[in-house]
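It would be a great kindness if you could assist me with a short task in structural biology. A protein sequence and the structure tokens that stand for its backbone fold form the material at issue. I should value your view on which stretches of the chain appear to form regular backbone elements. The record follows directly beneath this note.
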Amino acid sequence: QVQLVESGGGLVQPGGSLRLSCAASGRTFSSYDMGWFRQAPGKEREFVASISGRGVTTEYADSVKGRFTISRDNAKNTMYLQMNGLKPEDTAVYLCNRRTFTGTWWPSWGQGTLVTVSS
């Protein structure tokens, strides 16, 4: 019964920063690996970053390594994506998701939050 709601997107200049949030309902947030994805106009959804249930292990797409940081606060049922050094190619709708206990991403997506990087 977990619902995920993304927020924090907006318009930012190249080189700027944004912090996205993914708020989850439910009492089992810490049981799930979580991840951020993004989808640019006319393109397939792509993986951005993931974080294990307790926040110990993180993974990043090569395109964002060194610029983005994924984190989570299980006490607040919230996951974050700190985005620094933003580039125009980062422009996309950013979505969060969770892994099922079988290891696949939950096959349901929310509205996401739009990040636009432009001068």
Q: What stands out?
A: Strands lie at 4-7, 10-12, 18-24, 34-39, 46-51, 58-60, 68-73, 78-83, 92-98, 113-117. The longest strand covers residues 18-24. The mean pLDDT is 95. The radius of gyration is 13 Å.
